[in-house]
Amino acid sequence: MPTKYKIILTALVIIVGFVTIIVQNPDLSRVAFLYDYYLLPTSLLIKKYASVIVIVLVQFLMILGLWIFPEAKGKISIKDIKSE
């Protein structure tokens, strides 16, 4: 896959991921987070913001898979296996 397409797909993954985070957690401003941090018990804090961690992790894995792992070469036929 050409680098231009990889850059476009990476940008789309990042943009869609952060838009999803903002839509799911509209109170992610610093003041609201500090308010939650000091007033909510740890279990409720984790329950409220765990989706953010999951979305960022999925973004990271998608970008890692796009840039690090090679793309598929196509179908392997029996002739290819016998020739090796």
Secondary structure elements and pairings:
Layout: H1 3-24, H2 30-39, H3 42-67, H4 78-83
Helix pairs in contact: 1-3
Structure description:
With 84 residues, the protein is mostly helical. The protein has one domain (3-83). It has 4 helices and no strands. It has helices at residues 3-24, 30-39, 42-67, 78-83. α1 (3-24) runs antiparallel to α3. It is elongated and about 65 Å long. The model has no long low-confidence stretch (mean pLDDT 80).
DSSP summary: helix tally: 4
By helix and strand content, what is the structural category?
Answer: mainly alpha
- The share of residues in helices is over 70%
**Main sheet overview:** none
Task: Please give the radius of gyration in angstroms.
Answer: 20 Å
Domain count: the total is 1
Features:
84 residues, mainly alpha
Task: Put the structure in a nutshell.
With 84 residues, the protein is an all-alpha fold. The chain has helices at residues 3-24, 30-39, 42-67, 78-83.
